[in-house]
Amino acid sequence: MTNNATPAVELRAATRTYGTGERAVTALDRVDARFEPGTFTAVMGPSGSGKSTLLHCGAGLDRLTGGEVIIDGVPVGGLSERALTRLRRSRVGFVFQAFNLVPALTAAQNVALPLRLAGRRPQPGAVAGMLAEVGLTGREGHRPSELSGGQQQRVAIARALVSRPAVLFADEPTGSLDAASGAAVLSLLRAAVDRHRQTIVMVTHDPVAAATADRVLFLADGRVVGELPGSVGAERIALHTARLEGATAVAR
């Protein structure tokens, strides 16, 4: 059945080249991809396949050299830097491997930061409610140094979700965590999709993390080369990834 809803993010013939002449490297090569509302997509592929470039360009953090990125119905190519910043603040959330919390701010202040940067006053109870949703009630006044790695990542998730963005981009969100903390983070991301129809695009090397998603998009040499449903499980995802890495190594 055709889905006529506006994608949370769409890439059309997205191309990103770094450098010029003989030194030019094409990190994205005419990629077409749609990320529908309320879906969870994992992006996987060998090192240098274009995963991070897809994330950065899809989120409006980097400009394409060809093609188009459309975020929540808005083509970003023609936006000024100021307009693009406003769009990111209101419609895009970010979760990174390194957490990227502000050390001097409390958990509550970190969560409220995107709203304040956008000139919006948090609704009463909104920040405490987000921290409760990620299991951090009672930690509102703690600074990042007083929290475990898993707790810091949960603050980062609450910060990313507090504005209810059109899309949340997660770059290796479990990469710095132990297995138990990583599983808790993945559970929170999954719950955001299932309960709030949040759209999530997650770059990962971990097949266990990828199996949490609705689908897994595979990249190689800057191109989409395959797709699997996350429901096939971590073992099959790992096998597919290994084959892809082997084929890429031979080609190079």
Record the SSE blueprint.
Blueprint (H helix, E strand, L loop, with lengths): L8 E10 L6 E11 L4 E5 L6 H8 L7 E6 L2 E2 L5 H11 E5 L10 H11 L8 H8 L15 H13 L5 E5 L7 H18 L2 E5 L3 H4 L4 E6 L2 E7 L4 H18 L1
Helix pairs in contact: 3-4, 3-5, 4-5, 5-6
**SSE pattern:** EEEHEEHEHHHEHEHEEH
Supply the number of structural domains. 1
Distance between the termini: 39 Å
The number of helical runs is 8
How much strand content do the residues show? 15-25%
CATH class bucket: Alpha Beta
- Overall outline: globular
Tell me the Rg in angstroms: 18 Å
Helix content: 25-40%
Report strand order across the widest sheet.
6-7-8-3-9-10
Quick one: how many beta strands?
Answer: 10
Q: Summarize the biggest pleated sheet.
A: 6 strands, mixed
* Low-confidence regions: none
Helix and strand content put the structural class at: alpha/beta
Average per-residue pLDDT, rounded, comes to: 93
Fourth-level CATH superfamily = P-loop containing nucleotide triphosphate hydrolases
The CATH topology name reads: Rossmann fold
CATH architecture: 3-Layer(aba) Sandwich
